Amino acid sequence: MWKSKLIFKLILSVAAIATSVQLSYSSDSAVAESASSNLTVESGQQNDTLEIPKLALTGIGIGVITGLIISAFWYQKYRQRQLHSTTKIDRFREEFGCGSLADYYLSKSRNSPKSLTTPNQEKIPAYPTFSESLGNPNSSSETDNLAAEPTPDTIPNSLSDSYYKLIEEIVTTTLKGQVRAKEYIYRQLIENVGAGNGEIFERCLSDRLNSTQSELHKVRISPDLFQRETPELKKARLNRTLKALQSIESEWERVQKEKRNRAAVTAAVQQILTASEAYRFSVLLQIIDPNQNEVFNQSQLQQLAQELKEAVSADEDFQLKQEIEQLAIAIASGVESYQQLEASLVSWIYEPTKTSLELTQSQKKQEPWASWAETVNSPLTQILFSALAEGISATEVVVCQPYINIKDWVELTIIVQRMQQSLVTWFERQPYDSKWGTSASIATFLSFAVVWCELSHGFRVATNIDRTKREELAKACFQIVLQILRTFAHRQYFPLYGGVFAFFGRDALQDAIDYLDTPLKEVEGTQEKARILTLLGYSQFILGKYPQANSFHQQALEIARQAGDQPCEIANLNHSSRVCVAQKDYSQAINYSQRALILARQAGDRFGEAHALATLGYGEVFAAQQTERIEPDIYQQSIEYLRRGLELSEKLRDSAFGVNLAAHQTQALCYISLGIAHVALEKPQAAIEYLEKGTEAVQFSGDKYLQGLNFLYLAESHYNLNHLETAVYNSCLGMYLLEQITATEWRQAAGLLTILQSKLGNEAVEQVIVNSRTNIIKFIGVDGYDTLWKLLEEYKRSH
């Protein structure tokens, strides 16, 4: 096309030159005529002589110009007729750059007897049609004169041509507005892309996308002479083409994902069928592990159940057939039961609870287990949820079962696992209250982990179950615990410095956490294990089990160092410092916190730095209390550390993702340490100001040891200010909380309460406690309130 344009312009240029020459000659003739009139020769003879050549030359010039213009238009028409009479390939290639669309028109002329040749161009081989390529990928082109059986090298080329044409047909149909849903594209891909040819199709699609994007970038803004479409129109056309190609890419990803899902289900069926009866439950748990790259969804679980039934439908082994069918029924029932529960999974958050007077009141934290027990239709799951709603351990549910039916436990596993995953997802998607959503997600992970931990322990101690079966079920339940904690360890809000442990109305800090110790030792050292051990060490510390806590933190410290997880390493140094303070090893506590501070500053871990400043000041405050003389200068450096840690933690609290537990834990530690320091400096009013701020922060962190210390030193500060009744109230709370975690400081609180009895009298102290019953129950419950006098009597007997 560009050649014809060039020739056309050349003809017009010649015509223009001829016209210029003619006009120039006419001008010269006129000048000569004017000059000749002044000559003395005979004028009549002169004019007759000049008139004859002028007329002749004018006629010749007009004829040449007319001939050139007619030739130009004739040549242009000739080129157009030649293009339309031969092939459209050059027009598409030269003007639109659509090589594959040109190939389509070229392939249609395969049966045409006319030779597809253009000037200065070799004969172009014809491509097979789309239907022939799909029907017989190995077919050859007649124009290439190949053998009937092509070589393997020709097969990819033939498939590529077919797939290029398929892509163009889908694009053309889309641009015409004939594709109303992506389902059409999906069906075309399913029907026309053969198995095992996915890589060839992906390469063709990638080439088409790249060429379209490249052409879109090359569109020039300034218009060209004789252009067929403006740059704006061309851009619009290319953008529509690009969107159509992206739709094909999206649907192809859907096709590939479905193929992977089917392959995963088929592989899962084989794993279950080849596993022994004792390990079949564990194999199923590995298949549905949420930490795998391809996580099974509800549709895949239903497909798994269906394929398991089909796999043993013709099996002659009756026992195997019955076991697999029961397993398939359990999987399908679990999915169905969860689907019925899913609609009301979080409805308990918005439902008011009834009082004894049948009145309703809204509560911020509600118990979900009872609500779920009313909704679920699985018998065993209903029993478990009802027991948890009444505060009964899951261990007792296992022990009280008359017999164990694997089908029931598989169904329960499917239901509870899907519930836990859905709850976490829902809590994480709460943009209006990210702090609440994050704390609820943490509580969900920990609460469900403890439930499975209790179930695991129940199988270990149950005597009414076969030993082999109960050991396998105990390991399977603990396997779920590890799966939950591994998923939790990858979350950005994983609590390296604490957590919320009682969101579901039950105290998750039970002795059941100990059951994680022995099985977790069998897990290889990984980054996830280091973080899980950090959480368990912190839990043991809150329970007052300092040797166990120190063991967890030392293991986590070593694994985190090997894995290069510096935030986890810094956290365990800080936790180890806290444990040493509780064990009265103040020099080692200061050593750990100094190492944590240096490493945090080197790594840029701002949370670790804030907590290291807090633990360093905390350790130095307690170390300073051991000196016989109280010097203000001794506390000055530790107070400075605490103030810097407090300032840094306040800055980080609001800038962190959601609610940052490390910031609240650090604030609680700083406030309480500053309060203790001012108690030692005999500044009770300043101490009360810090300790009252620490009361709110420590409740959020869930650290019972710090909470007990906070009430203890509040009692001492109020005692020093002669606020004796307030001192009684705080002494009771500090005594109970510290005794519950076996911290020796509970005796310090009990001793202060005894002194208050001697000053106020037993009846006055008893009346103060009775008057404060409502506030005391908020912190330690009814059982804690009833235990106060027993603890005081125990202290008096042992003193």
UniProtKB/TrEMBL annotation:
Secretion signal span: 1-18
InterPro entries for the chain: GPSM, TPR-like_helical_dom_sf, TPR_rpt
Pfam families: TPR_12
Keywords for the protein's UniProt record, in alphabetical order: Cytoplasm, Membrane, Repeat, Signal, Transmembrane, Transmembrane helix
Region of interest (Disordered), residue spans: 111-154
Gene3D superfamilies cross-referenced by the UniProt entry: Tetratricopeptide repeat domain (1.25.40.10)
Entries under SMART domains matching the protein: TPR
Main location: cytoplasm
Location of the protein in the cell: Cytoplasm
Transmembrane segments: 56-75
Domain of life of the organism encoding this protein: Bacteria
Ranges of Polar residues composition bias in the record: 111-121, 130-144
Protein name: Tetratricopeptide repeat protein
Lineage: Bacteria, Bacillati, Cyanobacteriota, Cyanophyceae, Nostocales
